[in-house]
Write a structure and sequence with these properties.
heterodimer; A: mainly alpha; MetI-like fold; 10 helices; 0% strand; flat; B: alpha/beta; D-Maltodextrin-Binding Protein, domain 2; five-stranded mixed β-sheet; globular
């Protein structure tokens, strides 16, 4: 049996299980009320896509810079990286959003909640990325660097041709997991009244009282975003194999 | 086998004899639904629920559920009724039943101190920003009657207030009592427009078709009012507000 066929079979079996569970819930389905609000779902989904894409790029960049800080020989730079990572990873995103928007952004006069939301989300995710990147680089044995120097590669060539290709392969699964988390974490931006996918689904629920009908499309909408991310990561892993 | 079924039957009858009354409310709306410093539920609605359970001769279980999750919880049978400062509206009547109303109030505006807004009608203008709490009657009003303005939907009352305090929103639409209290807390940055532009009544939410409980609840409300129960709750939890609202002639009474 091919791998793809196995995936499809297992997914179908799981869907059937869930369908049976749903058929046993004593629940009056009312899809028409939710259908009426389809524009709201679409608009919220697009906002989530935009938020996620922006935060995806920004958090990768922030993570790369922070991981360089973490490995710096300059104690002050290292301290900045370390304090950033521990402060962000040790506190809830909810608190960071509320303080970030109502205290810090308010103090500096930054009024655009979309920008503040992307910024806070990127800083949040960037802290995790920094440690993933650092771990990937640390996993490359010292002998690799020594060998690279022995065959006369400059430090930059050694990084570009020897260290990074191996490190990328090592960190890809963890980075993909982090990006999937980021897409879902963007739902928390609703606390600062950003009209994203989850908030819009909750609003439809609040108006129509159709809880399951509002939240099932929500789950599907997030899967549409997260599954391609995982697929992309697996494809890249293949490309960065030794043989390639 | 016989012994087991007998035991089950006994257990079932014992359960129905003292089946707990599960009351849903969101404990974040003082002084109606709140928690004391020890984390126990307290407030007007909690006292009301206690009196109702006593009247029915059933033990009381209070379920703390987010406001927009109360009606789904009632519909799916997780709770028996809602006592959570719930406004009886025609929209909600499509999915749940209501008891007789027990409190009369109205929607009011908390506006920024420097905002030019003088009435709800002033909000129905392009460029105005309205803060609302998700799933409340204020949320409904903003999206249906004030279509020109932009609506900010927030999870919590306090962030909606912050939006007004920081001038990010022109107004927060909420019930007159909460607007009064929030204005006092932020006297320098906000104004209260308490004259209600829409009167509302609060009632106990019940499952559609649960007529026996509805009859009992209405009977209880009548008896509770006759015994002066509501007056006592008002004097205990809202003495100052009661006076202030009476002086200004703003409807807020049990």
């Amino acid at each position: 049996m091919s791998r793809r066929l196995a995936h499809i079979l297992v997914a179908a079996a799981f869907a059937a299980l869930v369908a049976v569970a749903f058929s046993r819930v004593n629940y009056a389905w009312n899809w028409s009320a939710v259908w009426e609000y389809r524009d709201k779902f679409i608009q919220g989904w697009l906002t989530t896509v935009a938020l996620s894409l922006a935060a995806l790029v920004a958090s990768t960049a922030i993570g790369a810079v922070a991981s360089v800080c973490l490995q710096s020989r300059n104690v002050l730079v290292e301290a900045v990286g370390r304090v950033y990572v521990e402060l962000i990873r040790g506190t809830p995103l909810l608190v960071q959003l509320l303080i970030g928007f109502y205290v810090i952004a308010n103090a500096v006069g930054l009024e655009n909640r979309f920008v503040v939301g992307v910024l806070v989300l990127s800083l949040f995710s960037g802290a995790y990325m920094a440690e993933i990147f650092r771990g990937g680089l640390a996993a490359i044995p010292q002998t690799q660097r020594d060998s690279a120097r022995a065959i006369g590669l400059t430090p930059w060539q050694s990084l570009r041709l020897v260290i990074l290709p191996q490190a990328v392969r090592l960190v890809l699964p963890a980075v993909a997991g982090q990006l999937v988390s980021l897409v879902k974490d963007s739902s928390l931006l609703s606390v600062i009244a950003i009209s994203e996918f989850t908030l819009n689904a909750q609003e439809v629920n609040a108006v129509t009282y159709s809880t399951l009908e509002s939240f099932l499309p929500l789950a599907a909408g997030y899967l549409v975003l997260t599954l391609p991310l995982s697929a992309l990561s697996r494809w890249l892993e293949g490309r960065f194999r030794y043989e390639a | 086998m016989l012994a087991i079924s007998a035991f089950l039957a006994l257990a079932a009858s014992a359960a129905t004899a003292a089946e707990p009354l599960r009351v849903g409310m969101e404990l974040s709306y003082p002084p109606f639904e709140m928690t004391d410093p020890q984390g126990r539920p307290t407030g007007v609605s909690v006292r009301l629920a206690e009196a109702l359970a006593k009247h029915l001769g059933r033990p009381l279980v209070i379920e703390n559920i987010a406001f927009d999750g109360l009606i789904p919880a009632l519909k799916t049978g997780r709770i028996d009724c809602i006592i959570s400062s719930l406004t009886a509206t025609p929209e909600r009547s499509k999915s749940i039943a209501f008891s007789e109303p027990y409190l009369r109030t109205g929607l009011a505006l908390l506006v920024g101190a420097r905002s030019p807004v003088q009435s709800a009608a002033d909000l129905d203008v392009k460029g105005r920003v309205i803060a609302v709490k998700k799933g409340t009657t204020g949320h409904r009003y903003a999206t249906t009657a004030l279509k020109q303005a932009r609506t900010l939907v927030l999870d919590k009352e306090n962030t909606a207030v912050l939006e007004v305090v920081q001038g990010k929103a022109d107004a927060f639409i909420y019930d007159s009592l909460s607007v009064y209290q929030n204005q006092k807390r932020h006297a320098d940055t906000t104004r209260a427009i308490l004259e209600p532009f829409r009167e509302e009544t609060w009632a106990i939410g019940l499952r559609q078709g649960d007529e026996p409980l509805r009859g009992q609840v209405n009977e209880f409300l009548k008896a509770f009012r006759a015994a002066g129960g509501f007056e006592r709750l008002g004097d205990e939890f809202l003495p100052e507000e009661k006076r202030a609202f009476r002086e200004r002639g703003i409807p807020f009474y049990f």
